[in-house]
Amino acid sequence: MDEIRKLSDDIAHLARLSVTQQTQQVQRLIMRIARSYSKSLPDLSAKLVQLIQEAPTAQSPLRSAGMTVVPVDQDSRLQLVRCEQPVCLDVEPVWPQPIAQILHRFCEERRQQEKLLAAGVAPSRSLLLVGAPGVGKTLAARWIARELGLPLLTLDLSAVMSSFLGRTGINLRHVMDYAKGLHCVLLLDELDAIAKKRDDVAEVGELKRLVTVILQEIEEWPQSGVLLAATNHPDLLDPAVWRRFDAVVQFPMPSQSDVFDLLTRIIGAERANSDLRRAASIALSGSSFSDVTRSMESVLRNATIENTSVEKAMTELIEERATSLPRKSKYELATQLTKAGVSQRLANELTGVSRDTIRRKLTEAEEVTQKE
Prior knowledge:
Blueprint: H1 2-19, H2 23-36, H3 42-54, E1 81-84, H4 97-111, H5 113-118, E2 126-131, H6 137-148, E3 152-155, H7 157-160, H8 167-180, E4 185-188, H9 205-219, E5 226-231, H10 239-244, E6 247-251, H11 256-267, H12 274-283, H13 289-305, H14 310-322, H15 327-339, H16 344-351, H17 355-371
């Protein structure tokens, strides 16, 4: 009798949430009911889990039937999203270990969502990617889409932002509705442009209403899809936005080790010895991943056009970068260049560090190595 009374209460609660259209709460309650009755009513539990798995959206299970045409702006007729399918990466990305763990765990949750739902636990649906330009946020979105075998839809901000009051919010809803009707990854790039703090007196009411639209849409995002957002300016985001995402991923600037790993992947270990590659990673310290990629692609182009070795082209890049390095980095670079087989005279010319200083630094490094 107690179990029947409890089930009756759950059904009444479910009905209450349904009539008030609290769709996310409905899904959470269904998962809790499935978990609670997995032993006593296994058939009911299995049907409820299947219902959650098959629901294409958080708002309407039938919405996907008519959502085949890419939404466009009513006036400009520009498409509001860019689609990439399949997603192909030229070079495997390099991330610090903590970032890599978060992204791999997110993908694993999506792959095993049936197992999680059967246990009454929902997989993560959304990530907020935060960091400076070029640190790998967009690349992370493309990598996730590729790993999950899903198309990547990217919000086209230039098309969504309309000069007509009220149209921008409508465009945004059309994009979100379209993505909800598909099994895909949706990326809201430059989120700070449409989700600014509502206490900013410089912003007009229309842009402030956009924040409300964003919050509602994120809250109603279906379990079947993946929602990603990226921002270079986290300080501009409305505080309420942060709480709507399942996790926030902070992308730092790459370390010297990260730079070394990335440039090695781009040019190949066989084209330049490791000491010269380490010298290049010192010269490129402070650069973003995208800057490193552009620099290494420039090295490969120069080596090809000038019919010279990659090592020579890389040495020329190091020479260009060396003048802007801080003094400590110049000492480190001069020492590393000498280890790479560059003469002390040339190392002096490239970095401006005297040969006496280079010899002293080499001796100090040798003493440290012997102690270790």
